[in-house]
Each structure stands twice: as C-alpha cells, then as structure tokens.
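Supplementary Methods S3. Input chains for the assembly prediction are listed below.
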Amino acid sequence: MHYNVALLIFTVISLVILAWPFLFSRHIRISSYDVSDEVVTVLGQKDLTYAQLADLEYDRHMGKVNEQSYLVVRDELLSTLNQVEKAEQTVREHIAQQVEQELQRLHADEATR
Amino acid sequence: MFVGDIGRAALFLSMFVVPYVFLASTFGVVTKNKRLQASAKMAVVLQFVLVAIASGALIELLVSLNFRYTYVAEYTSRGLEVLYRIAAFWGGDAGSLLFWLLIMSVYLLVVRFTTHEGSEQMHPVVTAIMAFVMTFFAIVINTVANPFDTLPYTPQNGNGLNALLQNPGMTVHPVNLYLGYIGFLIPFAYAMAALILKRTDATWLRVTRRWTLISWLFLSCGIIYGAHWSYEELGWGGYWSWDPIENAALMPWLAATAFLHSAMIQERKGMLKAWNVILISLTFLLTLFGTALTRGGMLWSIHSFANGPMGTLFMSFVGIMLVFSAAIIFWRFSYLKADAKFEAIVSKETGFLLNNVLFIGALFAVFWGTVFPLVTEAVTGTQMMVSAPFYNIVVLPIGVALILLMAIGPVVAWRKSSLENLGKFLLAPAIVALIIMLIIFFLGYRNPLSLASYFASSFVVWTILSEFWRGVNARMRMTGEAAVISLVRMIGKNRRRYGGYIVHLAVIVMVIGFASTGGYSQQVTINLKPGASVSIGDYVLLYHGLRTSQKPGQVVLSADLVVYTAQGNSIGVLQPAVTFYENGQSPSSDMALYSTPWTDLYVVLDGTDNQTGQALFEVHLNPLVSFIWAGGYLYIVGTFVSLWPEKKRQDKAKRQVIKNAL
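Predicted structure tokens for the full assembly:
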C-alpha cells in the first residue's frame, strides 16, 4: 500500500519536472551556424603555443636546452603564435558577422509576426 | 515498512528516469532541440534525488536493524556498531551497487552543472554516455540485486557483517575504490564525446584533467588503504598478495597512470591522440572488468562478494562497452592524426612514451596473471592460480625501470635534449646513488632486487632535489627573492610540474618500504609454553599465557607477550588474539603490532592448546613498513598540489613573450 502511494507520488512529481521545459519554457531555436568549434580550436592552439613557449623558457633557465636550440625553437613558436593570432582575428570577425546576420534575421522574424 | 517502500519506489522509478536522461540527451543533440536537452538536464537532478532517497532509505533500514529486509538481515546484526551498520551499505552486493549508482548520480550532477571553456557542446553527449552506463546499473539493481527485497518473516537477528569487514578501513578503502573506479567514467565519456563531435584536440583532456587526477587519487588511496587494511586485519604479515581482486584495482591504476603521462604529450604537442583515447577507454573498461571479477566470484579471492549471475552480467556489459568504444575510435580514427612528430630520441616526449610502454607492459603481465586461472579452467577444466613469484619476476624489474625513468624524465627538455646535457645533470645523482647502494651492501643487506631499488630510489631523490635546487636558484637569480620564498612561489606557479615531482618522491618513499619489507623481513613460527620466549631481530618476546574475555556475541582468546629489547628493557605487552563468533562465522585472527618508524613487530596467534596453555605464534619483523604509509600521505599532498588551480596568466605570459621577442 505504502509502496504504491510512494510510487504514484514520485511518478507524478517526476512527470511534472520532466515536462516542465516543454510546457513553460520559451522555445529556443538553435542557430544553424555554430561558431564555438572554431573559437575553441583557435584558442586551444593559442594556449598550446603559449604553454610550449613557457616550457621552452623553463628549460632554458634550468639549463636543459642550449642557446642555439632555444633560439631556433623560440623563432618557430613565435611564428606559430603570429599565425594563430591572425586566425583568431579572422574568427572574431567571422563571429561578429554571424551575430549581425542572426540579429537581422530575428528582427525580420519579429516584423513578420 | 514505510521507509523501505519509499526507497523501493524511488529506486524503481530511477530505472526509468536514467534511460530517459540517455534518450533525451541523445535526441536533444541529434535534433538540436534545446527543450529536450533542458528536460534531460532536469532529469539528471531528478535521478540524483531519487537515488539519494533510495540510499537514505537503505541506510535508515540498516541503522534501525529492520531485519524484514533481506539485505539488512544478511549484513547486520544486533550489537553491530552504528558505523559498521552504515558501512554495510556497501558491504554486500545489492547495497554496493546502489552505492555505485549514487556516486555516479553525484558525478553526473556535477558534470552536467559545471561549465568549462569549450566543453558546453560536449555536455549533452557526455551526459548521454554516462546515463547509458548508469542505466545498466539501475536495471541490474532493480531486477537482480534489489536491496529492498523482503523476507516472508522477520528474523530475530541478522547474520552480521563479515568479521574481516568490521575494521575502520571498511569506511575508507571501498569508498575510495568506488570513487576512483567510477570517476574514470567521466574522462571516458568526454573522450567518446570528443570523438563523436569530431573535437579531437586537447579540450577534452583539459576539461577532464582534474577529474582524472581526482579519480586516480581516490583509486590510489583505495589501493594503499586496502594494503594497510590487509596488513592489519588479515594477519598474514604482508600487505600485498597479488590476489586477483587486488590486481583488479591495480590494472586500471596502471592504465590511468600511463594515461596521465601520455595526456601531457597531447596537451603540449598534439601527439598520441589515438593512444590517449585508447588508454582512457582501457582504464574505464578495466574498472568494469574489476567489478565483474569482484561480483562474479569467477576467481577465488577474499574480496569476492558472490557467485550469482552478476559476473556474467558485468562481463557482458564490459563486452558491450568494449565494442562501443572500439567502434567509436575506429569510426573517428581519421580525426586522431598527430599534429606533430617526434623530433629527437632524447626528449621528454620519448621519455613519456617509454614510460607508457613500461606501464602497459606491467599491465599486460598483471592482466595475464589475473586471467590465467580462467584460461586454464576453459582449457583444462581446472583453475591454475598464478602466485606471487610470477609477478615478482615480471613486474618488479619493470618497476625498477620505471623508477630509473623517473630520475631521467625531469632533466630532459621537450622536443630535443642532448646526451651531453643529460650526463651533466645525471652524473652526480648517479654517483651519490651508487655510493648509497654500496654502503647498504657493505652493511650486509644484499638482496639484489632491493639493492637495485635502493640505487634507483636514491638516483630519483637526488635528481628531483637537484631539479628543485636549480629551479630555486634560477628564480633567485631572476627575482632576488630569498630561497624559501623562491621555493614556495616556484611551486605555486608551476603546481602541476612540482606536484608531479612530489608524487614521484612519495612513490620513492613507498618503494623504499616495499624494497625493505620484500628483501629483509624476518619471520619465526614457534610453539611456546607459558614462560618461554622467542627472539627476533633486536626483540625478545616472553609468553605469559592465554586469557579469555567476552563481548556481545563474541568470545576473545588472547595471549600475553611481554616485549623486551636486546638490552633487556621492557617495551610493553602485545596481545594477539582470536575472536570466535556465536553466529557461526569463521573465527578471525587479531594480530598485535608494535610499530616504530624503522620496524614493525607483528605477532599473530595461530593456534592454542587450552589444556597446556601452549600457543602457536607467527612473529614477523618487517623493516620500514611505515615508509609505505607515510609515502601514501605524501602522495596525497603531491596530487593536491598538482590539482590546485593555477592562476590565469596568459596575458602576462603573452606580454613577456613579445617583450623577449623584441
């Protein structure tokens, strides 16, 4: 008896909780263009290059790498950093463009309603 | 019955809510339906609440000794301390599975409501994978091992918790193991999500680094506490017996340790992507395999819980997850190409790779030794157990090689190092280590493996201490800080690196303990009459006689042994005992221990003759056991240093790099 009552109460509460987003949340349409992948990739490359530079500086201070190797690797990493920063700029512009287009689309949707 | 009914109802409903989390998350991702994803997110909370209610109800039944419930009657009894009544929650099959489900629910809740840069897209997929695994547990608990099953009558008393489990270790060892085992589900789920979403960069590694470290720490603590428990409770004088279930915990630890090292190569160089995914999958599968071994009773072990259908179910699930992960890896293999190549043989990357080869070699040896009885049973019909010598011959030399690698690793640079540099950094520590080994040799300690371990350990200690010294010196030169401040700030700014070094030092402290007990323990088995004595090392033990005492439900037979030093000074009385239980459980042996930082005097009462008062004793003198436990605590400190978040200093680093470049 107790079991059936407890099960009934839990089931009702669970159904209300699970249905809540369908009943009371505003519908959110996901943009067809998702920029987060590009951002994450570029930021990941940037973090990676900084981490490699930090490791290189550490190895140099600890005497684990000779001056010649240090200079070669540092130039290589700075060049990579430069490319990554250019890519980051491109992605930023791309995102701004997408946001602008999305806003225009939303305004247009509002106007047609 | 009221509390039990609530618990049973909550547990029953969870069997439907968890699959809902899986389905809603999956279809939410596929259809990009935010409402479905939001509903799945709410279901995660609901799932946690339901499992928490069920767990709370079971604990209440255990504490109140409601013997109407089969589980309570099987694992508790009148007179059992409240602490062990609570511990009985994970003391039996059904309860421990519910405990697993509870931990998974907590982990899923935290994962779902924690945000990390770049991981938002992965959340629904990670949730779906975790929910899929949880679904298996929820179904098994509800259909095969329900802790809320009732008896047709209410017995007067329960069977009680196994005497071996009535130890404070019961509150620490299994909980740590479970937290560790289950924790590896999180990096595994992220790895699979990264593959499914084609996000095979190092994001998933960065997001899960702390989860992996925390799980690894729990698993490590579980293994160390397990060894301590075995040492203090089982009364055989040792702490590790290569028991199949001990191996079941060691195998995922070996795979996870290899993963922690190889993950650094992907994070730093974008290499070993496929290998890392394989390693974390292997770690997770080995945790399930370990559970199958523990639950299934397929192999003889003191840890086995049961012989029911659980083992078959878990092995089937291991098979399903193996096929799932292999299929995903194969499907996305083209996205797992390395961003860079190995540039030189002498480099940190090569060191990590060699480290992985050794760890996997050790893992393979332990795996083969563990499953060998199953293989022989399938072929010959009889289980042939693999004993300690096999593991000692195969695994211990690999261990020594790994220790040597610990010495070399810190002094090697990323990308490329020169042999000349290596020689410069390693020569002095090697000479110091050699001198230490020779001193130990001439002191008369000549066990070859122990000597090799002492050499390797000294080598690592000196290399790591030199690394700290060089780091502090470099910082002092640059900043003009005092040495202590420089040391603290250096560790603070490179927590991951120096935390790792502290963990390595902790391992070395433990290795010294292992090498000493393995090479130089002494043991005497002797039958003594009252008034007779036995000598071991610098101790003399004088036997006075037996005494009997009674506790509720127990009769304790103990022996009095007065301990003297070689100089004749009395240190105290040791009382090894045997406890007999009125409920028919097998008697348990309670060893007596006199412990100093340098030696453990460990006495077990093996048999008695009540007519003559004679007693059979097993006396062990174990050197440096305390180093193993002390190393365990240092290990925890090192992992915490490594875990502690570092401040974001990218902008500062960027300015510094540009300044240097100019």
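Residues 28 and 62 of chain A are 54 Å apart (CA to CA). Residues 31-112 of chain A form one domain.
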